[in-house]
Design brief:
18 helices, eight-stranded mixed sheet, globular, eight-stranded parallel barrel
């Protein structure tokens, strides 16, 4: 019912014959007068290379519109009432021309380009007076980037072959061309290797799975879980993808994230085990041992992998590899001395180089996460930059090919809405708008260095994604935004135009039975700093200019009671605002809870801005009156990866104060540590500060809201210094990396 409501809400802004309705936006698109009548008398005429594209369109028409159009592969001369599709070898593979007139449709281009033209044609189809028509148009189109990727983790949670095929089909309909299939990890080995059957017999199953985020203490569901793909199924998926011009890139994790493999074959570890397949998320200490027998084991595996996957690149992971087991290993220490390796990071580089040699001998190239840069990058390796853009920049400057996939914009396991009704996610906040704003080529690269950026991809890690419906919810419509980022030249992009096209596109997602997120339809709330006795303002916006927002401040349901919203709301006390757009018949009630203090809405300065991924570099999130929750949802937490928090709040005048409170998050499995200490300073002039209170980590070991009381005093300026934990210790997840410091609302009372 609610999806039908979408049509009613947006009909005023979306006419089905509206121009520029394709996602991603073509390079050149010109609409003409007239329509092509697509009916059962139409014939699709194709050459040998476009047979699948022709059949694809014919099948789509029959499935969605209920009638069949014929195919012909003999006569390609012009003829009215036909759709002609042919490959022109003078064009690049992904380029296409599409011309629709009232008499015929002509498609020509590269083999992939002709298929993409069919996808554009599908998006142009519309019903008018009971007829299936296509508006007259001329399109010339080609992609900006060669690597337009989408990733799926099937290790944390397993997905059927049917869903994997649907996942690939939806990629193809948005002109994405690289499916990154994450097949092995600590929590499950999902690919049949005939020479080593225990990889799936043992490594493919775990005894239970952690419930939500119950790490400390651990709480499992007590239910065995697993599954794997046979080699026949994998060949089936690879061929299915190939026909849709999607390359499948497998990921076989090494040297870390190997617990499932070591549970099956412990002899390839440094300690000899025994091990069990991981039942919780995170990083585990036991990794592959860099011994000759291990390389032979991995070579055997990669022999079968490369036989299954014809992709140019094979992904070997390389991320989050703890070094503790190597430090404890006499063999590893002797090997480092023998090879002249100064530390375990260089030992990882040695490991990666050995694997690259194996892959090169099979005519393949290695790609891995940006940790493979540590200790020196293997000469022919490509880098997938996920820890921000620094790894990609470093690799491109060194002449290595790069796929950009920073967590800030491309991790679709993050929350996409601030609504309390969102399903559980790993954390972070990556709304649709942020994905659309992403630019894959960093400004730090020169024109020549930029050529090493192959493209970008989104990653869908599935720790908290158990079902196909949830996976689709997290991916769409954010995939639509990324597809345009990767296909369309920046000067052709327009957020407003994209959102207009997206409203029609949701109707297509309905036809395709996609369980997409409704965050796009939510009322957008923005908190702004006020003045005087009005410390904060709440501004509400809806997509529809005809919407009617009603709100309440007394806990009542705004669907029935409340005040019509006409201007930003003054927030001058702690309160919960509930609001809804009454024109959207099936919309949900949203709410915003404010907890005010003397610091709310006041000017705040930071010595180090928060990381772009958590807080967007803005300090205002520390004094906006909003308390975060422990699940990292809604973009409320501000994070610092390495630096300390040094914040100074100007209360505006000398105030009587006796308490500072702030939120701290502890999730060590995600590299988030409590600070070493918190120190509070006061000042009347903003120049000379004196310490008023200090609290050590022993006093807030559980995290949460931490209160620091002190003797009542007067001050205009309050400085809060929070000392970052520092480097993650050996033996801990993420060892050797900088730790994260996560801080929430600073309250002064």
């Amino acid at each position: 019912m609610w999806r039908f409501t979408i049509l009613l809400i947006f009909l005023f802004s979306v006419q089905f014959s509206r121009s520029q309705s394709i996602i991603p936006m073509p390079e050149i698109i010109t609409f003409k007068e007239g329509f092509f009548d697509c009916n059962e008398n139409v014939m699709i005429r194709h050459d040998r290379q476009t047979e699948f594209s022709a059949q694809y369109f014919s099948d789509y028409i029959q499935e969605v519109y209920g009638f069949k159009i014929g195919l012909e592969d003999k006569d390609l001369s012009p003829r009215a009432g036909t759709i002609k599709i042919k490959v022109d070898p003078s064009y690049s593979n992904e380029y296409y021309k599409l011309k629709v007139t009232s008499a015929e449709i002509l498609i020509e281009g590269g083999a992939a380009g002709c298929f993409y033209a069919v996808q554009s044609l599908i998006q142009l189809l519309e019903l008018k007076n009971g007829k299936c028509i296509i508006r007259a148009v001329e399109i010339e189109d080609k992609p900006r980037f060669g690597w337009r990727g989408l990733h799926l983790d099937v290790c944390r949670h397993f997905f059927s072959i049917d869903f994997v095929k649907k996942y690939i089909d939806l990629m193809a309909r948005h002109k994405l061309n690289t499916f990154h299939w994450h097949l092995t990890d600590d929590q499950g080995w999902r690919i049949e290797i005939k020479k080593y059957p225990k990889l799936t017999e043992v490594g493919g199953w775990r005894k239970e799975t952690i419930v939500d985020k119950n790490f400390e203490p651990f709480k499992g569901d007590g239910t065995p879980y697993g599954g794997f793909y046979t080699q026949q199924q994998i060949r089936e998926v690879v061929e299915y993808a190939r026909k849709r011009h999607v390359t499948v890139v497998p990921e076989i994790e090494m040297p870390g994230h190997a617990l499932a493999a070591l549970a099956a074959y412990p002899e390839y570890s440094c300690s000899g085990g025994p091990f069990e397949v991981g039942t919780k998320w995170g990083v585990f200490e036991d990794v592959f041992c860099p011994a000759e027998k291990t390389f032979k084991f991995l070579e055997d595996i990669l022999t079968e992998v490369t036989d299954l996957f014809p992709s140019e690149y094979i992904h070997i992971g390389g991320d989050e590899c703890p070094k503790e087991s190597w430090r404890k290993s006499a063999f590893c220490q002797a090997l480092m001395k023998e090879k002249g390796l100064k530390d375990e990071h260089e030992l990882q580089s040695y490991f990666v180089r050995r694997i690259e040699i194996i892959l090169a001998a099979k005519g393949r190239k290695l790609i891995g996460w940006d940790e493979i840069l540590e200790g020196g990058l293997a000469p022919g390796a490509a880098v997938m930059s996920w820890r921000g853009e620094d790894g990609g920049i470093q690799a491109a400057k060194a002449g290595h090919r790069v796929v950009m996939t920073p967590g800030s914009h491309c991790y679709f396991d993050h929350y996409q809405s601030k609504s309390t009704g969102e399903p559980l996610a790993i954390g972070g906040f990556t709304p649709l708008e942020k994905v659309y704003q992403y630019e894959p080529v960093p400004k730090a690269l020169s024109a020549s260095e930029s050529k090493f950026v192959m493209g970008a991809q989104a990653n869908l890690w599935t720790e908290y994604i158990k079902t196909p419906q949830h996976a689709e919810y997290m991916a769409y419509p954010r995939v639509c935004a990324l597809a345009e980022v990767l296909w369309t030249m920046p000067e052709k992009k327009s957020p407003g135009d994209f959102y207009t096209r997206l409203t029609r596109h949701f109707l297509l997602l309905d036809k395709w039975n996609v369980n997409y997120s409704r965050a796009f339809f939510e009322i957008k709330s923005e908190i702004k700093s006020g003045t005087g006795n009005a410390p904060l303002y709440l501004e509400l916006k809806q997509r529809s200019s005809e919407g009617q927002i009603f709100y309440t401040t007394d806990g009542a349901d705004p669907r029935e009671k409340g005040v019509k919203y006409t201007e930003p709301l003054i927030i001058d006390k702690s309160v919960e605002i509930k609001f809804i757009d009454r024109n959207a018949k099936n919309s949900i009630v949203q709410s915003q809870q404010f907890e005010l203090s003397k610091a709310s809405g006041k000017p705040i300065t930071l010595t180090h801005p928060p990381d772009e991924r958590y807080g967007g570099g803005e300090a205002f999130g520390l004094v906006n009156g909003i308390l975060a929750d422990e699940n990292l949802s809604g973009g409320r937490w501000l994070g610092w990866w390495g630096p300390d928090l040094d914040a100074t709040i100007d209360l505006g005048s000398s105030q009587s104060i006796a308490q500072v409170e702030l939120g701290l998050l502890r999730m060590e499995n995600s590299w988030i540590y409590l600070p070493q200490f918190i120190e509070v300073f006061i000042s009347e002039d903003g120049q000379k500060f004196e310490t008023i209170a200090k609290k050590s980590s022993q006093e807030y070991s559980a995290g949460g809201r931490v209160r620091i009381d002190f003797k009542r005093c007067n001050a205009r300026y309050v400085k809060v210094f929070v000392k970052n934990f520092g480097t993650i210790p050996n033996g801990k997840e993420g060892e050797g990396n900088k730790s994260w410091l996560f801080v929430d609302e600073i309250s002064v009372r």
